[in-house]
């Protein structure tokens, strides 16, 4: 075995003090959920060391005892089986696997991120009076947006929460998959576009911490970090009041500008937030005039819109030809939103500040209205079954695509 040269050995020793700067926040967090998860890591490690330590020790012992120079060692060339040894080799690992499985099963259910908290600290059960604080987190390229529906404010790259109060996070993404992770508070959970994930957590002490995305999401990923502040209830109320007194309104037009890719965004506060903005982000309909996914799925569940919807359907190219937010959102193709009041639709479209949207383009891409060359009129005879269904169909006929 080669030995380290003196200069290399001295350098290795000099680097050891740097280990003192390692952050042990995973094993010493500030939140009860993260503490329970850290305990699971410690318990699992100790259970596995029950096998690893004896095996490593016996490996060294056997190598030393049965070395070639030890002539007093027992020599049994015909030995091939020991019932006691077989029981030890198989029984002990099996018991450890059973223990690990039991700990994992219990921990998976008790620490399910979708499950509301049963306690905020050891011995402190959550009661009906402990209303969770809802925070809506959106992963943008490459920054984080936090919406507080109860307080009616929003922030960019700053998360402030009250100490000791249960937290309920609703998490989504605007483009690609990210991962929301605050090691001092709870484990990570993914943020995905068009989907909503949940996380329940709590802070048991005040302080400043760091959150980040733990899933690679492009060029600005390394700077996708945000400050986390755990405040006392009084300080949180002051922080909320300060956020309300400064900043602008976060409406859909402002959000579409914020959604565009950018790096190293400074902390930003919004004094008010447009209602249901987070739900529109999840349903991919923050753009004015775009149909929401839940509306589209409801239409599909009822069998579609039939012939009346043909000139409303357009090719859906969401995040297909360019990264989300990098193109001209006003000219992207999408499924147009249904609206029974044209004035409301026009008012919604007028909120786009970048350019005015021509409503005539919402008739369809590559589709012509019924009655054009794409369709032909099928006349029905009095003897045909269609004649007896509806007088209106007898007069207007039915429209079939040309095969």
Automatic annotation (TrEMBL):
InterPro entries: CcO_II (IPR045187), CcO_II-like_C (IPR002429), COX_ARM (IPR010514), Cupredoxin (IPR008972), CuRO_UO_II (IPR034227), Cyt_c_oxidase_su2_TM_dom (IPR011759), Cyt_c_oxidase_su2_TM_sf (IPR036257), Cyt_o_ubiquinol_oxidase_su2 (IPR006333). It is found in: Cell membrane. GO terms for molecular function: copper ion binding; cytochrome bo3 ubiquinol oxidase activity; cytochrome-c oxidase activity; oxidoreductase activity, acting on diphenols and related substances as donors, oxygen as acceptor. The keyword Cell membrane applies. The chain crosses the membrane at residues 40-64, 85-107. Its main location: membrane. Residues 376-390 have a biased composition (Basic and acidic residues). The keyword Acetylation does not apply. This is Ubiquinol oxidase polypeptide II.
